[in-house]
From TrEMBL:
Organism whose genome encodes this protein: Flavobacterium ammonificans
Keyword Ribonucleoprotein set for record: no
UniProt keywords, alphabetically: Cell inner membrane, Cell membrane, Membrane, Transmembrane, Transmembrane helix, Transport
UniProt-listed Pfam families: MFS_1
Domain of life: Bacteria
Protein name (Swiss-Prot/TrEMBL): MFS transporter
Source species taxonomy: Bacteria, Pseudomonadati, Bacteroidota, Flavobacteriia, Flavobacteriales
Amino acid sequence: MSSKVPTQNSLRHVLFGSLIGTTIEFFDFYIYANAAVLVFPQLFFPGTDSATSVLQSLATFSIAFFARPIGSAVFGHYGDKIGRKTTLVVALLTMGISTVCIGFLPSYASIGIAAPILLMLCRFGQGVGLGGEWGGAVLLAIENAPPHKRAWYGMFPQLGAPIGLILSGGTFLALTNCMNSQDFLDYGWRIPFIASSLLVLVGFYIRLKITETSAFENAKKEQEEVKLPFVTLLKSYRKELFFGTFAAVTTFVIFYLMTVFMLNWNTNELQLSNQEALLIQLFSVLFFACFIPISALIADKIGRRKMLIYASLAIAVFGLFFAPFLNSGSSIQVTFFLCVGMMLIGFTYGPLGTFLSELFPTTVRYSGASLTFNLAGIIGAAFAPMIAIWIATNYGLNFVGYYLSVAAVISVISLLVISKKEHQF
């Protein structure tokens, strides 16, 4: 059976299979982010203070980041034990079912406190699913890649993030343009959550057609399997877990400042309409998407670690310009600022999956890469929008930028400390 893997796993199947899954997962993940700013404060957290409602809504947004390491541990265990393919299919279904359920939830006005509780449970399910999905999708790509093209292959699942963001933002933009605000609030916001079931079915079909990676099959054939991958990680790869996590923190901080925080800033502080704010964000995401492949090409030339160091240093400088641009009151300057931020995210996000995967051997790679990535999500993203809103309100935008710059410096230090050794594939 293993001898057939190279011919069955064609380049087209591998790259499209890794891309389609992460696109669906991130679409599901981001429609929640949009709804958490535009809809959920009114429907699930009504109150006299709109700012408090937004913060409560964003608190449920953060739940998924705490669920993601659980998904990493559970799906990572089975991904390293029974294989990447089956685990990826189950992770996709977990995310998809959780997302569709959100589309059918009654509001606070209908069932009271049970509404936000059910919303939190569904958000938890989204986090568990994405926690298992990301690592497997990256491994599907890079474990089928030639050594000199690992970053290039590894950037295909990373492209799922901007594509999912474009699809989610575009869906909300189309809905807000096609219906009045009351209809959108009553039922329109539910459409993307329910319609995501169609995307999940497509992803499910494609994932079933993909066979196991040769790296996993070879490790299994040579009986290199470990009994408890998670325990082995904590025992033998603590340094990789710790510094790999902080190396990835900046990517999460800047991403959620440029998306959730900026969407809230543009609609509440700059008083832009939902349509204008979403349009600006969608335009900026194109820069995110374009610079992911560019960064991967550079990373394959100079090394993944160096690429991340340079990108993190650039982000540290970028953080110093928050106040001048966002306090300008000019939508043009805000758009320019957002585009530069998205470009920098592309530079750091493109090689990140490959870099984290190369820190671990095949036998614990699914668990290691997933857990590192998702722990970074807790530290760098779970509360980033809320922290940024609080800092901006109490200390001003300058300190929001300093918050980002400090995170970038921490990532640079971690990247300098972490071992240059790459494990064999």
